[in-house]
Amino acid sequence: MAGVTRRGLLTTAAAGAGGLAVGIGGTELVRGDDGRTDAGAAIEPFHAEHQAGIVTRAQDRLHFAAFDVVAERREDLRDLLGEWTEAAARMCAGRPAGSDNDTPLLPPQDTGEAVGLPPSRLTVTFGLGPSLFDDRFGLAGRRPGALRPLPPLPGDELDHRRSGGDLAVQACADDPQVAFHAVRNLARIGRGVVVMRWSQLGFGRTSTTTRDQATPRNLMGFKDGTNNIRSDETAALAEHVWTGGEAPAWMQGGTYMVTRRIRMLIEAWDRATLDDQEQTIGRDKGEGAPLGRALEDDPLDLGARAIPADAHVRLAAPVTNGGIRLLRRGYSFTDGFDPELGQLDAGLFFIAFQRDPERFVALQRRLGAHDALNEYIKHTASAVFAVPGGIRPGTSVAQGLLTA
Ligand code: HEM
Q1: CA separation (Å) from 157 to 162, 336, 377, 379?
Q2: Engineered SS bond to 345: which of 106, 129, 283, 338, CB 3.0-4.6 Å?
Q3: What's the CA gap between 356 and 113, in Å, rounded?
């Protein structure tokens, strides 16, 4: 595998030689000499004030993995996060995970399946679970107060083998093989220090995080992400997503990520009438407009009775829930067929970023108890992670936590 290069690298080199690198919404888009834009060549910046993969324009594909640390020394954990940061920065730039790929008597440092593929807007977002802050690494006194295991919530039917984890890696990209490659190579680098606890593939985004993106549809066929926090809502992000003075220094500009694997009872949903489906969500299925309104972007009319008391959007809306807003960034999934039930095992891998996981808990308590949607869904796995602030060149994720 001598001289491994990814096509993105070649394109970047070509752009440097006479092409044009332009920035659109924080995304570095590389163009060739002919002015043609190669969408797959776009690179999301790895080094920034906040970790990428949160307000980043939502990519089409997800590969998420949670790991448990099996090493016993804090230095091993610190070194791993250093190596992971370096490899992630390289892969997000469209480069191989490691540079030594041509020594015949050694395994290559990159597994090879992304060679020739463009960067595909890959982002890698790292998180730390509450279980990392036990007494194994002397971190018990450094756990941010907001980072606690989620309490039992109404309607939970959790599989603990697919929940929790010491560390999280969220890889998003417009090409599934690029996202897979990122997780696989980080797992390979971590061998001996971490073991993978669970992983989840997502095949279609269920949210928008920028205004120029069309609202996608979830597997229930409804537009999802209409009333999400967008990347240009600076004040809302500061209030609802990014941590501030309440967090330790290494968490400044960070956030908390909650993941919920939510199985949809698709067969029951498919037998529900259109009217029932719309009353359950509180929006119409075609346009995505709030019931009683005409257009998707019309505000919810909660004074009118068009939206039932137990409709999902009525219960989830900030005006009725005490002002809570989350940044949702989930993906549709299918894990094939459930032979016990004879049904597809599919649904929404819900991911939300918020300044304090307690806000998710308060909202889910309300939804889990009253939401009409509960007839058609089951929460089957759950996890929470602290997502440290952005990574500067030459530093590693959570460096302040492990070296101070
Ligand atoms: C499979 C499960 C779920 C489905 C199918 C679903 C679907 C939807 C749909 C179709 C909308 C309307 C469009 C939009 O504004 O995005 C919506 C809105 C929303 N959902 Fe969900 N959702 C699910 C789970 C959850 C969970 C677990 C939470 C949080 C605990 C949540 C929080 C919200 C919020 C905050 C809104 C925006 C409400 C507003 O301000 O109008 N959803 N959801």
Answers
A1: 12, 19, 10, 6
A2: 338
A3: 38
Q: What count of Cα atoms within 13 Å lies in the side-chain half-sphere of residue 305?
A: 0
Residue that the structure tokens 């307690």 belong to: 358
User: What are the tokens at 403?
Assistant: 């070296």
Is residue 50 within 8 A of residue 242, CB to CB? The reply is: yes
The confidence score (pLDDT) of residue 12 equals 38
Name, in order, each residue with C-beta under 8 angstroms of 270's C-beta and a sequence gap of 6 or more.
Answer: none
Pick the atom of ligand 1 nearest to 227's CA: 15
The fraction of the chain above a pLDDT of 70, given in percent, is 90
- Dihedral, 34, 35, 36, 40 alpha carbons, nearest 10: 110
> Whole-angstrom Cα distance, residue 123 to residue 91?
9
Give which of 102, 65, 94, 89 is closest to 188, Cα–Cα: 65
Distance, in Å, from the CA atom of 34 to the CA atom of 31, rounded to the nearest integer, reads 8
Contact 23, 174 (CB under 8 A): no
Output the residue whose Cα is nearest ligand 1's atom 12: 224
End-to-end CA distance of the chain: 40
Choose which residue among 350, 363, 375 to substitute to test ligand 1 binding: the one with the highest number of ligand atoms within 8 A of its C-beta.
350
Per DSSP, the three-state class of 30 is: strand
Of 22-31, 93-102, 236-245, 274-283, where does mean pLDDT reach its minimum?
Answer: 22-31
For 333, the token pair is 């999934």
The residue ranges of DSSP E strands in 215-254, in sequence order, are: none
**What is the mean predicted confidence (pLDDT) over 73-88?**
97
Give the separation between CA 377 and CA 264, rounded to whole angstroms.
4
> Which of 313, 373, 379 maximizes ligand 1 atoms within 8 Å of its Cβ, making it the mutation to test the pocket?
313
Strands (E), 279-361: 327-328, 331-338, 343-354
Sequence-ordered list of residues with C-beta below 8 angstroms from that of 188, at least 6 positions apart, any chain: 97, 111
Which residue minimizes the CA distance to atom 7 of ligand 1? Answer: 224
Please tell me the distance from the alpha carbon of residue 205 to that of residue 62, in angstroms, as a whole number.
Answer: 8
Give the residue among 62, 328, 65, 346 at the shortest CA–CA distance from 202.
62
| Cα 312 from Cα 282, distance rounded (Å) | 6
Q: Ligand 1: which atom is nearest the Cα of residue 352? A: 29
